[in-house]
Specification:
12 helices; Rossmann fold; alpha/beta; four-stranded parallel β-sheet; six-stranded parallel β-sheet
Length: 352
């Protein structure tokens, strides 16, 4: 049995149990960090100079690929990325080391502490490139510029930054999804995300209306979670594709229709133009991409950066009709598939 659990069940008074458990966990954590560092020494591998850890969410880790790319452009090396999402980093030459999260260090705060301890013992620098820390119950503090620029600034990057993420697919992976050429990929919900936000959600019946209106013109493919509401006029691949298979499908597809979230970032990483329904929770200039058609609301309360509670009945999403998305789809189909425009943001020296 884990010693920490044994202490929690011991006959000691509650305060003594807490103190003993905390003391044991502190010793255990320092020991694990020391052992992890000695692996570099044993293999004569140079210690990391920079250690990055964002969190648990797929989308946030994918955005870290931009930070990694901009660091490499500036000559940085020996970068360690802490992430459980290995599939995002396969073939990525911008990082030196990839390490999974230490499972025992959930929740998030403990993982951050361990990363800081590693940097303290073995040198280097730990950075968590968070762009929107909690700002209260059900709300986050808004970034004052694009989230990717905020993340790069947190790491100390200055100068021009290209606002786009990256994922490296093999030729074989790309060819395996060649059947998806000229298809339109759609996702009907993002509520299975690690940090679900109801205020990002549009309406399944409106997604259904979009596919209904365009079913004779386009072939739709639905990806996402098996729990997402199904769309009758789309090939159903819900729950049957992994990250890299989804990326390959998007790479081949004509365009993607969905919500602000992981698949939006994944589509941009593989050069797939998108129609993104933002509503009013966040603004396209904070999380979107200029190559996409971003449908958002400009009502007075937007962007609110809330997750699930809205005292205005989600007017920002109510105001976006299926006809709006159908019109955006037809507009996007008139544009060339590639190359996609890339926004560049200049990060000034001394701008945190």
């Amino acid at each position: 049995m884990d010693i920490a659990r044994a202490l929690a069940k011991s006959v000691l008074p509650p305060s003594a149990r807490r103190s003993a458990r905390n003391a044991w966990e502190n010793v255990r954590d320092w020991f694990d960090v020391f052992v992890f560092g000695t692996r570099f020494m044993a293999t004569r591998t140079p210690m990391p100079k920079i250690m990055l850890y964002f969190g648990f969410a797929l989308g946030d880790d994918l955005l870290c690929t931009t930070v990694l790319r901009e660091l490499r452009k500036r000559g940085h090396d020996r970068i360690l990325m802490v992430s459980d999402h290995r599939d995002l980093f396969v073939g990525n030459q911008d990082l030196t080391y990839l390490h999974p999260l230490w499972k025992r260090y959930y929740p998030d705060g403990s993982t951050i502490a361990v990363c800081r301890r590693f940097a303290r013992i073995w040198g280097g620098r730990f950075v968590r490139p968070e762009y929107a820390p909690p700002g209260g119950a059900d709300r986050r503090r808004q970034p004052s510029r694009h989230a990717i620029a905020e993340m790069c600034a947190k790491v100390g990057i200055t100068g021009p930054v290209e606002i786009r993420p990256y994922i490296n697919l093999t030729q074989e992976e790309k060819e395996s999804a060649s059947w998806a050429r000229n298809c339109v990929v759609v996702q009907s919900s993002g509520l299975i995300a690690r940090h679900p936000a109801r205020l990002k959600e549009w309406y399944p019946e409106r997604f259904e209306a979009v596919t209904e209106a365009l079913k004779t013109e386009l072939m739709f493919v639905q990806i996402g979670s098996k729990e997402d509401p199904p769309l009758r006029h789309a090939r159903d691949l819900r729950g049957s594709t992994n990250i890299r298979e989804s990326a390959a499908i998007l790479h081949q597809a004509r365009l993607y229709i969905g919500l602000e979230g992981f698949l939006m970032h994944l589509a941009r990483a593989v050069e797939c133009p998108s129609i993104i329904i933002f509503g009013g929770r966040s603004a396209p200039w904070q999380l979107g991409y200029i190559c996409n058609i971003n449908i958002h609301s400009t009502i007075s309360c937007a962007p609110c950066w809330r997750s699930n509670n809205c005292e205005f009945g989600r007017q920002c999403m109510d105001g976006i009709s299926a006809a709006d998305v159908v019109a955006a789809t037809r507009e996007m189909l008139l544009r060339p598939r590639n190359p996609l425009a890339v926004e560049t943001i200049e990060i000034a020296t001394g701008h945190p």
